[in-house]
Amino acid sequence: EPQWSSDEKLCGILINGDVLFFENANFEKVAFKFNSIKVGKFRISPAPAPYNIIFYLPGKTGQPSLTRLFEYPKFEQTQALANKSFFQADRVDIFWNNKGTSALILTSMDIDKTGASYYGKQSLHYINVSGETALVALSDEGPIHAVEWSPKNNEFCVIYGFMPCKATLFNLKCESVFEFGKKHRNSIYYNPQGHIMLLGGFGNLRGGIELWDMTKRKMIATAEAADTTLLQWSPDGEHFMTATTAPRLRMANGFKIWHYT
């Protein structure tokens, strides 16, 4: 499916391993084309121009996969702002921060060939426009349930490990700066201002909610919101909504508005 830049002036479409870019909604003419061996995925940064774009190039058997970061439209191989290679990836998810200066790359392998995990194998990598790359060191084995950037762009949170699982806050050097303890949770929601974070356990978990003051690094409140299929913060950063909706759940459909306290 097509991807748009935040100002909607740039559109990219992945077709047969090539990415075609169109400008200003003119689809009669390809403005630029990213040619490589074969692109598996790409992500345009959410920030305004100049647009930064990450391309994921899957490796052939025995070869590493590669992610490359470019500033549009400088797509010559030598013009890459950053490169990160890794083995053991069937697929990747790319998470940009709001500024479009740093991104996290979640690599997943459906089958762990070492046999250590039924869940396959996952790892998290950091890349930025200055050319810095790193492996995010997670202190527990197990699946990665959620990854979320702070709207302040200076830190990110990861939920990982077997249940009850860890939640850890990292800075831009990929250093652990705070541990939220072990609980049954799988979701992260920052309020729009970035000073309150909600950790939740939804889906096959019981709906536990924790609200954290991210300035003081203290828990503000806990709540239970069983059978939640949707959660969203209000733009005021003080209220959030939980809802139970079909077709995920056909019983007890409805919504609730909460205050963070």
UniProtKB/TrEMBL annotation:
This is Eukaryotic translation initiation factor 2A. GO terms for molecular function: mRNA binding; ribosome binding; translation initiation factor activity; tRNA binding. One of its GO terms (cellular component) is cytosolic small ribosomal subunit. Residues 84-261 form the Translation initiation factor beta propellor-like domain. One of its GO terms (biological process) is regulation of translation. Belongs to the WD repeat EIF2A family. InterPro entries: TIF2A, TIF_beta_prop-like, WD40/YVTN_repeat-like_dom_sf. Functions in the early steps of protein synthesis of a small number of specific mRNAs. Acts by directing the binding of methionyl-tRNAi to 40S ribosomal subunits. In contrast to the eIF-2 complex, it binds methionyl-tRNAi to 40S subunits in a codon-dependent manner, whereas the eIF-2 complex binds methionyl-tRNAi to 40S subunits in a GTP-dependent manner. It comes from Bracon brevicornis. Keywords: Initiation factor, Protein biosynthesis, Repeat, Translation regulation, WD repeat.
